Automatic annotation (TrEMBL):
Acetyl-CoA hydrolase/transferase C-terminal domain sequence ranges: 278-433
Entry keyword Transferase: yes
Family: Belongs to the acetyl-CoA hydrolase/transferase family.
Entry-linked InterPro entries: AcetylCoA_hyd_C, AcetylCoA_hyd_C_sf, ActCoA_hydro, ActCoA_hydro_N, NagB/RpiA_transferase-like
Name the UniProt record assigns to this protein: Butyryl-CoA:acetate CoA-transferase
Pfam family, one: AcetylCoA_hyd_C
Taxonomy of the source species: Bacteria, Pseudomonadati, Pseudomonadota, Alphaproteobacteria, Acetobacterales
Transferase as UniProt keyword: yes
Segments crossing the lipid bilayer: none
Length: 443
């Protein structure tokens, strides 16, 4: 980055003074994940009765948002999310949080080409270093693109944000209008859950397909992280990391000496990621560590970038898959749950990588209101959004096995997926598939 780009001289103000800049009808951007502001958010919430039609764009809230708690009917603030957390999902159920469909790696381009200029962007950063740069820490993503499109740039500083080495991972004081001193709270953590027996079974199957020198992308959730646990025991070496989300499981592999990044073609010797979300141990691992390279999301997620590394292994969750291989990973009918994220882009990038493999994993069943149901189904739940199309699907994994759908006919796919379903549902699935003509009589 250039020294003092923009030529501004930022002014220090209080959170209340910053919130006073907001007018009815304004568009604000809170950034993504741990970069979302806290003291500004509280100060803006205190003004809720004075404001109307204020739009706020965000991604994956890791803490409750004061503006939403102060406005439970959405009369004053409207929340637009690029990916839901559990909190965002609850607010969506209440009618005050709205999803923006995206491929995560394309978001910087959306800001630069399609999204109207933003009135105010407020991002949480580290305090300025000796050269005047406010480091984004563990959340780079599309924050540079937002700053380029904002009329007013505000940073809320917090010294507890880990120092993230990387590219374009910060903003210079010359681009900043106002500085708010934050509350110094610890960086929000994502609680980890102990892997289930199903998670471990899936992890073992995928780990057996990973070779020495593979380059890993791990999605969010217990099942992908269970793969990392299995890799600790299975002996692969010289692993690389090129991922959207840096997880605790990947950091544990690094600390165990399994990650060298020595065989990567892109950013050799460095673990490339766009954001890190997990435990304090994860943040301590990346803090000031030049082995980790925090990049804008277009530099991690675009398929033509991903494929530049050999032997890319992409591991992602889904919640439902039909007998033709369509994966619905982000909704439950018309109820939105999470988001497309980077799943489809990593599925495509891994496939295009020399020797690459893409795994979409799921438990064979789930339980709702005391009734066990199959996640592998004849047809998706009405309203469900397809995240990964059948034509892109490569490996599908449940606790009952693994199947590669590339090059398989509809009938072959249906048979293979029925074999991955829970035994209690296989007969019914085959009967339905034959009745609908997915499996012909002679097959």
């Amino acid at each position: 980055m250039k020294v003092n780009p923009g030529g501004k001289t930022p002014r220090r103000i209080t959170a209340a003074e910053a919130a006073a800049l907001v007018k009815s009808g304004d568009w604000l951007d809170y950034g993504a994940i741990t970069a979302q502001p806290d003291v500004f958010d509280a100060a803006l919430a205190a003004r809720s009765a004075e404001l109307s039609r204020v739009g706020i764009r965000n991604c994956l809230s890791v803490r409750p948002r004061a503006v939403l708690e102060a406005d439970p009917t959405g009369e004053h603030f409207q929340w637009f999310s690029l990916h839901f957390s559990g909190y965002d999902r609850k607010k969506h159920d209440a009618g005050i949080s709205h999803y923006i469909p995206v491929n995560l790696g394309e978001i910087p381009d959306y800001y630069r080409r399609f999204i109207d200029p933003i009135d105010i962007v407020i991002l949480k950063t580290r305090p300025a270093d000796k050269d005047g740069f406010f480091n984004f820490g563990n959340a780079n993503l599309w924050h540079r693109a937002v700053i380029e499109r904002a009329r007013v740039v505000i940073v809320e500083t917090n010294p507890n944000i880990p120092l993230g080495h990387g590219e374009q991972n910060g903003v210079h004081a010359g681009e900043v209008d106002f500085i708010i001193e934050g509350d110094g709270a610890p960086v929000a953590e994502l609680p980890s859950t102990a892997p289930t027996e199903v998670d471990r079974a899936v992890g073992r199957l995928i780990a057996s397909e990973i070779e020495d020198g593979a380059c890993l992308q791990i999605g969010i959730g217990g099942m992908p992280n269970a793969v990392c646990s299995q890799l600790l025991d299975s002996g692969q070496k010289d692993l690389g990391i090129h991922t959207e989300m840096l997880t605790d499981g990947l950091a544990e592999l690094y600390r165990a000496g399994r990650v060298t990044n020595a065989r990567k073609q892109l950013h050799p010797g460095k673990s490339a990621y766009s954001f890190a979300l997990g435990s304090r141990a994860l943040y301590d691992t990346i803090d000031g560590n030049p082995d980790f390279h925090c990049l804008p999301v277009e530099a991690t997620n675009l398929p033509d970038v991903i494929m530049r590394n050999d032997r890319v292994v992409a591991i992602n969750n889904t919640t439902q898959i039909d007998l033709q291989g369509q994966a619905a990973s982000e909704s439950d009918g018309h109820r939105h749950i999470s988001g497309t994220g980077g799943q489809l882009q990593f599925v495509r990038g891994a496939y295009a990588s020399k020797g690459g493999k893409s795994f979409v994993c799921l438990s064979s069943t789930y339980e709702r209101k005391g009734i066990r149901k199959s996640r592998i189904v004849l047809e998706l739940t009405p309203g469900n959004v397809v995240t990964t199309p059948r034509s892109d699907m490569m490996y599908v994994v449940t606790e009952y096995g693994i199947a590669n759908l590339k090059g398989r006919s509809v009938a072959e796919r249906a048979k293979a997926l029925i074999g991955l379903a829970h035994p209690d549902f296989r007969e019914g699935l085959e009967r339905e598939a034959r009745a609908k003509g997915l499996i012909p009589r002679f097959y």
